[in-house]
Amino acid sequence: MATWTPDPSFYPSPRMAMKAPAETLAYVAAFDPQRAQPDAIAVVDVDPRSPGYSTIVGNTAMPNVGDELHHFGWNACSSCLCPNAPHPHSERRYLIVPGLRSSRIHVLDTKTDPRKPAIVKVIEPAEVAERAGYTRPHTVHCGPEGIYVAALGNREGKGPGGIFLMDHETFEVRGQWEMDRGPQHFAYDAWWHLGHDTMVTSEWGTPDTFENGLIPEILLGAKYGRRLHFWDLHKRKHLQTIDFGDKHQLVFELRPAHDPTKAYGFVNCVLSLENLSSSIWTWYRDGDKWAVRKIIEIPAEPAHEDQLPPVLKGFKACPPLVTDIDLSMDDRFLYVACWGTGDLQQYDVSDPFNPKLTGKVRIGGIVAQAAHPSGTGPLNGGPQMVEISRDGRRIYFTNSLYGAIDPQFYPDGIDGWMVKLDAAPSGGIAFDPKFFVKWPKSHRPHQVRLEGGDCSSDSYCYP
Amino acid sequence: MSDAWPWIVVAGLGAFHGLNPAMGWLFAVALGLHRHDRHVVWLSLLPIAAGHALSVALVAAAVVSIGMLIDGRALSVVAGFGLIVWALYHWRFGARHRVRVGLQTGLLGLGLWSFLMATAHGAGLMLWPALMPLCFPGTAAASSGGPLVPALAGVGLHTLAMLLVTGAIAVTVYEWVGLAALRHAWINLDLIWTVALIAAGLWLIVG
Lengths: 463, 207
Known about the structure:
The structure holds two protein chains of two kinds. Chain A is mainly β. Chain A has helices spanning about 15, 125-130, 215-220, 310-315, 405-410; strands at about 25-30, 40-45, 55-60, 75, 95-100, 105-110, 120-125, 135-145, 145-155, 160-165, 175, 190-195, 200, 225-230, 235-245, 250-255, 265-270, 280-285, 290-300, 300, 315-320, 320-325, 335-340, 345-350, 355-360, 385-390, 395-400, 415-425, 430-440, 445-450. Helices cover about 5% and strands about 40% of the residues of chain A. In chain A, the strands form eight sheets. Chain A has a four-stranded antiparallel β-sheet, with no helix packed on it. Chain A has a four-stranded antiparallel β-sheet with strand order 4-5-6-7. The model of chain A has no long low-confidence stretch (mean pLDDT about 95). Chain B has one domain (about 1-205). The longest helix of chain B is centred in the first third of the chain and has 32 residues, at about 40-70. The two termini of chain B are about 20 Å apart. The interface between A and B is medium-sized, with 37 and 31 residues.
């Protein structure tokens, strides 16, 4: 329904969004790795004044089993205030929740009861495949032409993956986004620079190469994704490919600067085949082309064979496995989740080419199994999906990566948890000792979305 | 005095269109902010006004052409239904257009954007109830010269009013007010717009 004034959670600029009130709820995608019980969107109380603080206060189960909820997003956000395609009187109300494995898309209404989102629409996999031409929906972003969904497989579950559009009010699947995809084949993440009319996409692989776990031959043969693609956002045309080279595998999470006048962003490369390090790269405008530069390399840590899962024993090292990064609203702090070693690092990236490490905590990790200060004892899994509050003061993260990959690196299983860090305005992070959500055994948590928006949900048209 | 009313309405609708952020002033402000240049705000107003004028003029030309072929009463009814259908379309599908122009646009693209926005919103159609008595006055008040001159004058006056209002708002917001005001001040003009289109359509049919 159209409103009379803009949704109060829409902000013209990231600067203004930083002044938003603190979130009181977090929505977390949770899946059952056994595919026996339905996956769910869990609602976590993140209001420190509430008696339910740091507990799961709501749970919306999906109607089927085996969806593998993973990433999700809002139907509408601050980009609705853009001057070229304004939809200011839409509501940020619905969560668009795809099943990465099932390709089913759920629409949840968070307005009626924010603690118990109601499923108002389910789009079955056959309809998604038929209308979108894609399957394995992953990243969901609200943007100028409605809801953009990056999908990893085509209709048959092979390549190319790509992006499709959904209506942000009726949730109809409108169809393929690309008009000219050029050489792009693999898909994974997608985001944009609204100020530069540019879409950026990254690469993982086709569903047959990851749905049963990473395939070592493909990984070591550098046959998973390793490129960035740049597109004309409005002509929907492929413009440029940047190949990270055959030493780099898995170019994943795209975090463009929130300030729409800035033409740079950050992406993580999970694995170097040379030394098992992970790296962070800055992409930036260089003349009339885009370019990339490696700005951070996080090395693998030497480890004894006995401490390592079979897939790593021969390497005698624990890779950092940076599988998510997130950028604060003021584009100042980049958070880096090292799912292998258990580090969550904070870098000052005010100068996007000269990052400074400003904070670090360790929890879980293949070798470290570090505990939480609330007195948990050793923990498994490691920092994975990270989300930052709009004011940049609170950082939330969970510990599961993907059902089929979790046991390759954590063969003894992953017991889910979600934690929170407090961030000092000028840098530095520390655990909130009062916030540790021990996840129910039946499910594992993945992406976190914060009430009213967060640092990876909204994009802005004004500086 | 009653002779002046259609002109006042034509100008008033220009002011109403200029007021709507979706008709251009917000784009002018955004471009000024992106290029860090207040001159861009001023310069952007010209293609915005030109695109709007072209859209309104084409609709006026179309209606005048039809008006040459059929009698005034029939024209009113046709135009009236046209407005109502457009209003319903705008209400139901207005949000579904391709986005063709972004923040890197040049002046030509901005003009095209303004033309598309005005056309999709039915800006020219909304004007017609006021333009019609100017172009096709009843035989009693027969004026010489045919419909072309009053139509052009009407489009010109409308565009001038639109340009003045949109320019005043763009410059005021850019220089003094800031965009935070959007969060509360951006009322649902599209809703008023849809109601205005339907009202204008009914006026033509009943009138």
